[in-house]
Design goal:
- The structure is a single chain.
- The chain is an alpha/beta fold.
- It has six helices and twelve strands.
- The protein has one domain: Purple Acid Phosphatase, chain A, domain 2.
- β4 and β5 form a beta hairpin.
- The protein starts with a strand and ends in a 14-residue tail after the last strand.
């Protein structure tokens, strides 16, 4: 076999997202004949962080590597888990000494594939430069494999686009995560890197990016902290599929996944014409 099929699941939000993944991930793995499955799990534990409970559930479902982001640190148990579980990543460009790994080299049935987790700095914490960190880690692992996947967890669209173009031809695929809203710009860049600006979230869309609506609105109304509670209802999976050439490391096919589709029908209320 000359190609590797990679399935990525976007930010999983709390219990609703996890339960939906439990139900549907096996079918997606079968549909896309996925050789490697990666998921962003930084919001898996009640919307904040990733503990051993959620991590082991995802690994048992067939996920090979779990990526993270700024919310990985929101629970103390998350820090302990990523310190001891090398397959559960946090962004590599956090300062030296932070718990956990920022990349993992997976020995898949079709050979090695490197998974790198990076975090942006625009409108986010002032951590180490993700671009220079990418250069460093690529120089370290390039001799081991041509198959390289990057989850770039960033707020600004421009920063994610810039990173994609910076890494074009250096990695097999780069996805943006964090903003929880799926973009429709999936493509293969000119030098062979599969790309999307943001994969979107896997969880409740009857929400404000996963949070209960009223609490989120109150944040804006009163400019004060509100209790974070994961919303419920209107659950969807957001993801990406990449077919990669094993020898060259380039992406050959990309497909954006959103399941099930939104119900776009407009219900006419009494008195509407």
């Amino acid at each position: 076999m000359n190609t590797l099929n990679l399935l990525f699941i976007g930010d999983i939000i709390g219990k609703p997202g996890l339960e939906f993944v439990q139900t549907w991930l096996p079918s997606l793995i079968q549909k896309y004949k996925a050789d490697v499955v990666i998921a962003n799990g930084e919001n898996a534990s009640d919307g904040k962080g990733l503990t051993s409970k959620e991590g082991e559930l995802l690994f048992n479902l067939g996920v090979h590597v779990i990526t993270g982001g700024n919310h990985t640190w929101d629970k103390f148990q998350s820090q302990e888990y990523i310190r001891t579980e090398p397959r559960a990543l946090r962004p590599l460009n956090y300062p030296k000494g932070a718990h956990g790994n920022g990349y993992y080299i997976l020995n898949s049935k079709l050979g090695k594939i490197a998974v790198i987790n990076l975090q942006g700095r625009t409108y986010m914490a002032s951590i180490d430069c993700p671009f220079r960190t990418a250069d460093w880690v690529l120089s370290k692992i390039k001799s081991e494999t041509n198959l390289i996947f990057v989850d770039f967890h960033a707020e600004a669209t421009a920063e994610k686009i810039a990173m994609g173009l910076y890494l074009d031809g250096k990695v097999s695929a780069m996805v943006g995560t964090h903003t929880h809203i799926q973009t429709s710009d999936e493509k293969i860049l000119s030098k062979g890197t599969g790309y999307i600006t943001d994969v979107g979230m896997t969880g409740p869309y009857n929400s404000v990016i996963g949070m209960k609506v009223q609490a989120a609105i109150n944040r804006f109304l009163f400019q004060t902290p509100q209790k974070y509670e994961t919303a419920e209802g209107d659950i969807h999976i957001a993801g990406m599929f990449f077919k990669m050439d094993i020898k060259s490391g380039k992406t050959l096919e990309v497909e954006r996944i959103f399941f099930p589709d939104f119900d776009k029908t407009l219900e006419l209320k009494n008195g509407d014409n």
